[in-house]
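Fill in residues.
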């Protein structure tokens, strides 16, 4: 009989098309972020710290559509969404359409113990100003600074096929945390919000069942409540089957060109699962029993 993993960590760098010249950057970025979280979990740290560390690393890497790599909206501005959920307390901290912070996920973390679950736009930025302590480190900046040189050339951003980043972590105390961070969709309507800051759509975590984070077209993911579906599937299926079964619901949507999605999950026993309905899905995972592995598709 094999003992269950003591800790587990899985992340994704987006359900998207990865051009051959971008493969190495995606592998390297995912691996670096995984190592940042793995070190915390291995040392007996908490899932919340590990998930935030992973997402901050991905937000720093312009390869990914989050934080510094965020794509611009139709006005050429960066508006970001991010969320964290604690599976022990079911607390949610999320921000939508936030501007002028390098680490939206750290604003989401600062919101986690507060009553509101979701702050938007100027209200989210104001909250970040109040909570930008070294402990949380939202790192306030000029909104224009968030456009990396790659993203400023929006045609190049489109061809790079960016999407959301996400993470699920299980620590040795049995706590599960799920998180997301995104710059949304390239050239989208200003003010548009996708699945990433919406619990039950882009993410969910419950210590009794598991945790999940998604990537892809936020409208499709939200209309199908994919995170919620995976959680329900986890009540009766193994984690890999739960993810794949939920993603199959994408077939119900007729606008087939806008239904790309991918999901990562960890169940309460530390088993990992992931799947996608997109050309590629950058994924990395490690557990106390499995050394780091990186994939660009299933
Ligand atoms: N999945 C990110 C978005 O649609 O905004």
């Amino acid at each position: 009989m094999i003992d269950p993993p003591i800790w587990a960590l899985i992340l994704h760098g987006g359900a998207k098309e990865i051009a051959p010249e971008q493969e190495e950057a995606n592998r390297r970025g995912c691996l670096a972020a995984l190592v940042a979280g793995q070190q915390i979990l291995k040392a007996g740290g908490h899932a919340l710290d590990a998930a935030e560390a992973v997402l901050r690393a991905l937000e720093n890497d312009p390869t990914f559509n989050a934080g510094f790599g965020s794509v611009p909206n139709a006005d050429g501005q960066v508006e970001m969404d991010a969320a964290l959920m604690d599976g022990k307390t079911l607390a949610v901290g999320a921000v939508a359409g936030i501007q002028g912070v390098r680490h939206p996920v750290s604003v989401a973390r600062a919101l986690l113990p507060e009553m509101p679950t979701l702050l938007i736009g100027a209200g989210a930025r104001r909250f970040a100003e109040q909570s930008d302590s070294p402990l949380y480190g939202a790192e306030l900046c000029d909104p224009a600074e968030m456009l990396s040189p790659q993203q400023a050339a929006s045609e190049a951003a489109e061809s790079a096929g960016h999407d959301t980043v996400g993470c699920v972590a299980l620590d040795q105390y049995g706590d599960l945390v799920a998180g997301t961070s995104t710059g949304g969709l390239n050239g989208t309507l200003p003010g548009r919000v996708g699945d990433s800051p919406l619990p039950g759509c882009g993410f969910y975590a419950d210590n009794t069942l598991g945790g999940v984070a998604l990537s892809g077209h936020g409208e499709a993911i939200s209309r199908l409540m994919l995170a919620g579906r995976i959680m329900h599937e986890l009540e009766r299926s193994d984690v890999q089957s739960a993810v794949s079964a939920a993603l199959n619901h994408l077939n119900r949507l007729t606008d087939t060109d806008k239904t790309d999605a991918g999901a990562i999950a960890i169940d309460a026993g530390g088993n990992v699962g992931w799947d996608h309905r997109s050309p590629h899905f950058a994924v990395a995972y490690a557990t106390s029993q499995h050394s780091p592995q990186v994939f660009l598709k299933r």
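The first strand starts at residue 8 and ends at 16.
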